[in-house]
Amino acid sequence: MALQLISLGTSKQPLYNEYSNSPLFESRVQLISQNLYKRLKDSGELLSMLDTIVTDHFLGPVDFFDANGKPLGPTKSVQIQRFWEDNNVQSEAFYGAGLDLFTDGEGFGWHVSANSILSAKQKELIAKLKAIDIGVGKFAEEESNFPRKLSYLAASTTTIKHDATGILYYIQDAGGERVRWETDQVIPIKLMNFNGEVRGFSPLKALTKEIVMMYLLKENIMAKLDNGGSPDYIISLKGANGVSKARFERLRTALESFSHLRKSHGNMPIDAEVDAIPLGTNLKDMEYRELAMFLISEFALALGLPSSRVPFLMTGSGGTSNKGELSGNSEDSYQTKINARRSIWENAWNKVLRKAGFTFYFRRTNLQDDVRETQASTQRASYVSEVQNSLMKSQKKLTLQAHLQLLSGTKVNISEEDVEDMDMSLILNPIGESPIAGQGGKMQPNNKSKSTVGQDFQASKEKTATNNGVYT
Asked: Three-class SS of residue 284?
């Protein structure tokens, strides 16, 4: 009892590992985030990978349940489905916050409901309704908490205001305007909790040099192509103590006329021995390719994408770099990460949606082949059969809902709510002795009933016998 009297407010809590919450510090954090997004716009490889990983994680099919994870009624189900589709929740809120999650390290979901703008008197009225009629009061409370809009706050525009142990509120600066958002309207989701920092961390932030290298590599290739595909040279005349200005100008003009690939054909006679010294080094085509593939591999590694999800990833020899993929280990690891991150995503959003009387969950069928799915279904069916046999000894059985959930894989463990008493009449009157299959039933061999075809055939045989084989 003494331990229960200790209040959490008076106990010490872990401290954030950030030295400053000043405007200068926040501007620096925001500048880093904005610079990263600017670089991403110039990197088609990274954008493609991010689109793949966000689609794999958060754009799959979802199922809706009530606040306790049980099936919804038809009216509530239609209401939620219509809201979900009308607001494009996954393609806008989930996609935007998901892209921020993997880029910035933290996604900021946003929601608004009637409860956020209700007055104190209106909230008090709902509380009185619950006291008078719990059903009516709960309905009013859920409707007031039902989201009118789900969206997200762009991570590059959002800063977190906090003290030493907790988040106080959020500030968004965009388009010359500043807006304050309270903690009950923002849904923060971190990709990585890194070194006790307030803001989440993304591996892409550790690839600043690689992103710049890819940018410089493309710039170098563009400069090379713009310069005619060859480096600049120092041209000298051997054995010439001096040359007249007119002769020098003729030589320079002649050389410049062949400075581009489009003008590289023709003859240029020179009445002297010429030497050419390159001003810079020229990377070979294979070196360009190897460097580009190395950088792309670094991007895939940071995002956790297996090479099977990056079809353009090639080795220098021209073959796909899928070594180690035949066993499926990398793909399996990727799917495990997807399901783990989906659980974090569901828990964060459902904290808000549960107040409105419903929850959502992604279907866990992402990229599973038929063989694995069949094997998993067989194992689940065997498990359910063993559970039913064990419960039968105690004159119990699984409820229909629990039975179906175990078979589908959406449920793993069972509780007392998933068990009900067995109908003893089924044990006292087994199915084998029913009027259909029991003694005298239609399926018994001593039954005298015949089908219409059988009766016609028997009558024909009897008629033939009575006429001594002569048909009439």
From this structure: coil
